[in-house]
UniProtKB/TrEMBL annotation:
The lineage of its organism: Eukaryota, Fungi, Dikarya, Ascomycota, Taphrinomycotina. It holds the Pfam family DMRL_synthase. It catalyses: (2S)-2-hydroxy-3-oxobutyl phosphate + 5-amino-6-(D-ribitylamino)uracil = 6,7-dimethyl-8-(1-D-ribityl)lumazine + phosphate + 2 H2O + H(+). It comes from Neolecta irregularis (strain DAH-3). It comes from the Eukaryota. Keywords: Riboflavin biosynthesis, Transferase. This is 6,7-dimethyl-8-ribityllumazine synthase.
Length: 153
């Protein structure tokens, strides 16, 4: 199975961090699953407190960088979640490239880590695979990356 080697984190690693999840609403059933899985990992595996977790939604992936720019200073780390499907998105490359660059720019400018939870895939089936509907769920990796980056100071 592909995936990162995880850092050594415990059930209390995330207990003092403030986390912002911003997610798009396009491809909503896949997004819903990714957000639920990310949240479950943060709370149950790493002890993030519910009161320290904020979830905000935006229309589409294009809006993710702006929402993060507006809110990130109030958090230790943010996770941006979106699903961009090439087969259904005429301007897929344009959106993907700009969203990626925008998220990178925000983390470097703000000094706050932004975890890249944007699936850029060729088909809906690939998105379902990466969301764990029938394949390896990527969301727990995003939660682990968020906790690791938030406490690495
Ligand atoms: C317009 C559009 C299209 C065609 N496809 C997607 C997609 O697959 N995933 C996604 O997150 N957003 C999509 N959008 C919406 C844009 O991201 C954006 O919300 C609108 O263009 C409004 O700025």
């Amino acid at each position: 199975m592909k995936g990162p080697e995880l850092a050594e984190l415990s059930k209390t690693s995330g207990q003092n961090i403030k986390v912002l999840i911003v997610h798009a609403r396009w491809n909503a059933y896949i997004i819903k699953r990714l957000v639920e899985s990310t949240t479950a990992s943060l709370l149950q595996r790493y002890g993030v407190q519910e009161a320290n977790l904020t979830i905000r939604s935006v229309p589409g992936s294009w809006e993710l960088p702006m929402a993060l720019k507006q809110d990130i200073q109030n958090y230790d780390v943010a996770i941006a979640i979106g699903v961009l499907i090439k087969g259904e998105t005429m301007h897929f490359e344009y959106i993907s490239q700009n969203v990626s660059a925008g998220l990178m720019q925000i983390q470097l400018e703000s000094g706050k880590p932004v975890i890249f939870g944007v699936l850029t895939v060729l088909t809906q089936e690939q998105a379902e695979q990466r969301a764990g509907i029938h394949g390896r769920d990527h969301a727990p990796d995003w939660a682990a990356a968020a906790v690791e980056m938030a406490i690495a100071k």
